[in-house]
Specification:
single chain; alpha/beta; 3 helices; 19% helix; globular
Length: 129
């Protein structure tokens, strides 16, 4: 009976060490920019976008308006000031996104448009412990 209790205790220790809590990251929308514009995360992590501006903004997948991936998987709808949008990434890859309202600022400001990118990597945090 004592040996099985020790084995169970060891298994619980190993199991709890392998568990990794997913992270939540924040991207702010302000002054017609995403900050940070590029965000590296791990599979299972969540990104929360906060409209910290006086303008309305959107978070929508795609590099530009003609991107066939536009709106997949990200589509926040219109975000009024102080509203948020969250998405949990379950698949590795590069996810470009934009604010459709402000994506083409180059002609107005000379700066790149309101675009961003989430880079989702395989979660190896449990393996590094």
């Amino acid at each position: 009976m004592k040996i099985s209790g020790v084995i169970v205790a060891l298994l619980l220790i190993l199991w709890s060490g392998a568990q990794v809590k997913a992270e939540t990251y924040t991207v702010f929308m302000k002054n017609r920019a995403f900050n940070p514009a590029q965000l590296p995360i791990k599979v299972g992590d969540t990104v929360q976008w906060i409209n910290d501006d006086e303008d309305v903004h959107l978070v929508i997948s795609g590099k530009d308006l003609n991107d066939p991936a536009k709106g997949k998987p990200l589509d926040s709808g219109t975000l009024l000031p102080k509203q948020t949008f969250s998405y949990t990434f379950s698949t590795p890859g590069v996810y470009p996104y934009m604010c459709v309202i402000h994506w083409s600022l180059q002609s107005i400001t000379g700066m790149a448009g309101m675009i961003g990118e989430v880079v989702v990597e395989t979660d190896d945090r449990a393996e590094r412990r």
